[in-house]
Design a protein that fits this description.
By secondary structure, this protein is of the alpha/beta class. The chain has one domain (2-17, 53-157). Helix content is 32%, strand content 20%. The chain contains 5 helices and 5 strands; from the N terminus they run αβββαβαβαα. It has helices at residues 2-12, 89-96, 111-133, 149-152, 154-157, and strands at residues 19-28, 56-64, 73-77, 100-104, 142-144. The protein has a 5-stranded mixed β-sheet with strand order 4-3-2-1-5. α2 links the parallel β3 and β4 (100-104). The longest helix is centred in the last third of the chain and has 23 residues, at 111-133. The chain is elongated, with a radius of gyration of 20 Å.
Amino acid sequence: MAYRVVYLMKVYNIRLALIVNNDQKSVHLIPTTGKRTWESKGLKHIQVLGVGDKRQIMMVISLVTNGFLLPPQIVFTSTTHQFLPLYNDKKKKCMNLGWDLAFSENHWSTLEIMKQFVHKILLRYLHIQICHLGLQESQKMVWLLDCWSMHKGHGFLD
């Protein structure tokens, strides 16, 4: 794969600032360690909070080859936009930094959520780099991502 990226860099004049790798990671809302506690050794009854809690969010994290971290996309479990945190200073700061908050029935990325990521985060970053580096509007970039069946479907590739 590295040879393919080098080939694309050479053919399309792609700079390191235009090679983005991303991954999606489920994150438990209540982390549990399972076998470790802060209780004294030898106690017979130890209460562990959150065991069995399977609530998760999906974090889409993107790293640029030059070390820059793109704003994340966070996918919550919900069927309406009412899941979003209340509008406060922390949410406002995250939104101003380019974070994208999305939702699906099971916190997984859907075709629409992936399109939202491309438009709100990836293309915004590409446009900023084109302006910053003085490149043409038609400049290409390399985006490395997992090959889920959704990522290989016509709806996504189009």
